[in-house]
Amino acid sequence: MTALRHPVLFWSGLALLLAGLTLYALAAGRYPVPPARVVAILSAGLFDTARTWSPTEQMVVLVVRLPRVLMAITTGAGLALCGAALQGVFRNPLVGPQTIGLSAGASLGGVAAILAWGFGPGVTVGAFAGAAGALAAVLAMQPRGRVAPVLTLVLAGIVIGAFCSALVGFITFIADPETKLPALVFWLLGSLATAGWPGLALAAACTLAAGAIVLAMRWRINLLSLGDDEARALGCAPGRDRLILLTAICIIVAAQVAVSGVIGWVGLVVPNLARLLVGADHRRLLPASVLIGAAFMLVADTLARDLTAAEIPVGIVTAVVGTPVFALLLHRAAARGRAA
Amino acid sequence: MIGCRAAGHAYQRGQWLFRSLTFAAPSGAVTAILGPNGCGKTTLLRALCGIAPLVEGTIEASGPVGHVPQATQADLGYLVHEMVLLGRSRHLGRFGAPGRQDRAIADDCLAQVGIAALRDRRYDQLSGGQRQLVLLARALATGADILILDEPASALDLTNQGVVLRLMRRLADERGMTVLFTTHHPEHAVDVADHALMLGGGAPLFGPAAAVLNETNLSRLYGVPIRRVDYRIDGQGGAALVPLHGIRRQSAGGSPPG
Fold it and tell me: Which residues contact A319 (CB under 8 A, 6 or more apart)?
């Protein structure tokens, strides 16, 4: 099951699925554009084709939908990659970007920025500062001079996450219900509705740069997943490797939260799904998580957009879809007697 | 060669597990470390493998060490050849991944310990004996000339105990490796070891196995009277160690009482 029997078929199938979903997401909506015309609009920049589409259609595809679709792909790929890496590093398939306090830290920073300056560029700064602060606090809670066991790191993450969530609740409570609260709540619920080119540029740049580091360390994550003792005996410095990975993950999560608020469950569910398909080896698991995460997020965001006349925050969709899938995975693991 | 000089360790100040320990396990030989529970065997192994430092003393090794732990905690479902491939990590750097040559070495190591057929099985679905052999193959894949095994036979049935012990002997004899192992089975040490180190029950004792593993030393080490019985069966000679726990006593006539 876990050994890929037809790797070429699998990877090209996954890539095709993502391409198909992208096309569908660009075509579907309250103003439908036929897929063939979407392809023509997209390729107009590359080839000199006759204009068979209306200016409105071009506007809808290139200005309204394309940044949002690319944002969904970036967000899903980044969060799933972070989740897969974290699960390896912490040797626990129930860990995600939310578990170790990064998302909560970033949302605290963002919420504080909204409270102080309203919704604007300050949110980005706040989210980065919050995530970095949470990571620093988690690392500061590790015993000094001794080898930190992985469990204390996870527990510290849970503590910091709970603390940040409490402060977020407090800020929500004191925020002005007329001016600040609506923006604050909508941002907290997670949405790609505000996605534009500047936000996309930020998220994509951070995800690509930090994601490249995580992907390059895919073999090291295999090694870290054996535990510190074995990793050290096999010639790696687990503390330093983990710090590099956590910093890269922190950058991806902060950028994502800054641009689209907290979107949960993607980083938890997708790596588990990917593990069922390609096995535990992070050389395959990380790329598979990237592709499946992007596809998952595209589906979730298209549903969030089109399911009802009003926009549903995508964080709600990912949670509603993610939790049953996760419960199923947990049940399977328990049935095999290896409940993590 | 691997050993230590004036080594000592204490988890609490003043309570030494062992101290003034100096020994050198030579290459091309098998060295056994014996001692009761809690005497510091695993602590010493961890220090020799570079996992955790000792409080005092120096470790001396002629090269990198291949470590065979009692069990691995890997729980994510790796395949056997992926586990063995992890042994190549030292040669790959932080951002590297194994290539064709590494895969060939890993497959070769699987064949050397006789489990090439398990290559594509999931590690967490193997029996204890098979897992031990996978970890042994992984340690070989590191390319190290020093092999350190933590109670390699403790979880194995009699057949697999023989497989692992014979393999250790062969690696020392044929490839000149330094093989060092801890054990709770003094008879295993008598069977395969050239040298023995005794920890616990006074000052550490190191020397040729034949000299160290005598009745007096072993009985004192474990606090149980141990008799050495030399035998010759079907033309093959050997020695067996018999611990005299004296739980079920038999009368001199041979029939059990009652």
Answer: A264, A265
Contacts of B74 in chain A (CB under 8 A): 91, 225-227
**B162: in domain:** no
- Determine contact, residues A103/A262, Cβ cutoff 8 Å: yes
Cβ pair B69:A283 closer than 8 A: no
Residue B237 domain-assigned (yes or no): no
CATH topology for the A7-335 domain: ABC transporter involved in vitamin B12 uptake, BtuC (1.10.3470)
- Give the gap in angstroms from C-alpha B194 to the nearest C-alpha of chain A: 25
Q: Is residue B122 part of a domain?
A: yes
Query: Would B119 be classed as within a structural domain?
Result: yes
| Distance of residue B157 Cα from the nearest chain A Cα, in angstroms | 24
ipTM of the complex: 0.86
A282 contacts A221 by C-beta, under 8 angstroms: yes
Contact between chains at B51 and A219 (C-beta distance less than 8 A) = no
Distance from CA of A63 to the nearest CA of B (A): 38
Residue B232 · residue B70 · CB < 8 Å: no
Per residue of chain B (258 residues), give pLDDT as tens: 999 999 999 888 888 888 889 999 999 999 999 999 888 898 999 999 988 889 999 999 999 999 999 877 666 689 999 999 999 999 998 999 999 999 999 999 999 998 999 999 999 889 888 899 999 999 999 999 999 999 998 888 898 899 899 999 999 999 999 999 999 999 999 999 999 999 987 788 999 999 999 999 999 998 899 998 888 888 888 888 888 888 887 665 555 554
Q: How buried is B138 (Cβ within 10 angstroms: 0-12 exposed, 13-18 middle, 19+ buried)?
A: buried
Residues of B in contact with A87 (CB under 8 A): 76
Asked if residue A100 lies in contact with residue A86, where contact means CB atoms within 8 angstroms, the answer is yes
User: Scanning every residue of chain B, which has its alpha carbon at the shortest distance from the alpha carbon of A93?
Assistant: B76
The pTM is what?
0.89
With beta carbons under 8 A apart, name residues in chain A contacting B52. Answer: 147, 229
Which residue range forms the structural domain that includes residue B79? Answer: 75-140
